[in-house]
Amino acid sequence: MPPSKSDPIAIVGAGVFGLSAALQLSSSGYTNISVYERDTQVPARYSAGHDLNKIVRPEYEDPWYTKLTLQAIQGWKTPLFGPHFHQTGFLHLVSGTAPEKATQTLGRFYSSIRDHPTFQKHLIPINSQKDITDIAWQLNGPLPGWNGYFNRLAGYAHSSNALRAVYEAAAARGVKFFLGDDLGKVTGFVYGAGGQKVTGIRTGNGKVVPAALVIVAVGAAAATLIPDAGSQVVAKSWSIGHVKLTDDETSKLRGIPVTYARDLGFLFEPDPKTNLLKICPMGGGYINTDPADGVSYPPKSLAESDGVLPPGDEARMRRLLREALPEFADRPFVEKKLCWFADTSDSEFIVDYVPGTEGSVVLLSGDSGHLFKMFPIVGGWVGRLVEERKQGVERWRWKGGAKKGKWEGDVSWRLGETREFVDIRSPVCAKL
Ligand SMILES: Cc1cc2nc3c(=O)[nH]c(=O)nc-3n(C[C@H](O)[C@H](O)[C@H](O)COP(=O)(O)OP(=O)(O)OC[C@H]3O[C@@H](n4cnc5c(N)ncnc54)[C@H](O)[C@@H]3O)c2cc1C
Ligand SMILES: *[C@@H]1O[C@H](CO)[C@@H](O)[C@H](O)[C@H]1NC(C)=O
């Protein structure tokens, strides 16, 4: 039996999953929804979506996701999401010195749309510097050996603003939000007589709040509330940094496509409000394994991730600029940080009931670094799960048998080694 429309539903975490679930369930008539968020604000600074922008591109190595993203892009064009979606196009490339793995991945992405009717007339193969400057004259660097394709039916979303919009829409529908360490941070669950069914949550101030259904949407922190998730969700981070531009520079770069050289990283059109041009170097990322149990958790405070930009990442970002936008190649990076997400061994999300809780707990996690683009349709998945009481999408089920360990080498679209946070943070903290 699904919960009745007036039953209390507790959603933990106001990120992409939590906010979309709140909006969807309130739209389908649930009247007592509370969202608990540990930060004092939404968009929450702990959220992987607390950022200027995220790529919205439909091509995937797996055509199943291509189809899904095409639905999401329809959602990005609706009144709620439209103001935050910018269809600048996507220049998807590798540099002249890219490893074979990057080139092969790029090829698989391209295949997923090349023969797809939706993309006819919207794809341009890129084989030379001129092919690139024909699309974006502003990319006036040498672009040595850069090749790939341009997809006009893609772009990016202003992610913080999109989170804020959905937060405001949910609040306007009567969803209650509890924020901050005392009222918003969930520290554990309360169990019914049998010891399996969760009947409520406990917040930072020790208060117990009853709930008929608890939806855990805490992203990278999943294992802090559901220890069994630690064998399937790995808290991982990538770095980001920005270049601060002048008004004229921002204006000049207006409309440039999202530009991704897979082996160097990606950059976006600058944000006209802040004049910040964001760059993300990607790579194998950083995990934060607790030696006591072998599980990677996000660091406890924001301060630990702020200002961190490991030297190898900075070097790739500098090279990306030198080859594409050389006038900014030596400008300092600002608002640097590590951004924590919930990685899984197969890059599949987890949208399912937690086994052994008698249907009282749903886990939404395992975003694997590619959920943001789905924001407009994520709520629908949760709505179906709650109404139908079972997950029909096999690939998003609770991954019971997954084992701990270093599996990154198997993920085709990741380049580079995954490293431990502790190994990269020390020199930064010492300010060498
Ligand atoms: C550098 C980087 C680049 C990315 N680029 C892209 C991209 O280009 N395209 C794309 O589609 N996706 C991208 N992503 C992925 C995207 O940001 C994530 O998939 C998405 O934000 C995950 O959403 P979530 O709801 O699972 O988690 P989050 O958005 O992280 O939200 C989790 C929330 O739970 C809260 N929380 C945690 N613990 C508690 C607790 N105990 N009590 C209460 N609240 C709690 C946190 O404060 C946070 O607000 C990127 C991610 C990173 C890190
Ligand atoms: C909503 O749920 C809370 C518990 O989470 C409960 O205290 C409150 O009375 C409920 N409100 C209504 C109107 O039922």
From TrEMBL:
Keywords: FAD, Flavoprotein, Oxidoreductase. Gene3D superfamilies: D-Amino Acid Oxidase, subunit A, domain 2, FAD/NAD(P)-binding domain. It comes from the Eukaryota. Its cofactor is FAD. SUPFAM superfamilies: FAD/NAD(P)-binding domain. Residues 9-383 form the FAD dependent oxidoreductase domain. GO terms for molecular function: flavin adenine dinucleotide binding; saccharopine oxidase activity; sarcosine oxidase activity. The keyword Oxidoreductase applies. Pfam families: DAO (PF01266). Belongs to the MSOX/MTOX family. This is Sarcosine oxidase. It comes from Aspergillus ellipticus CBS 707.79.
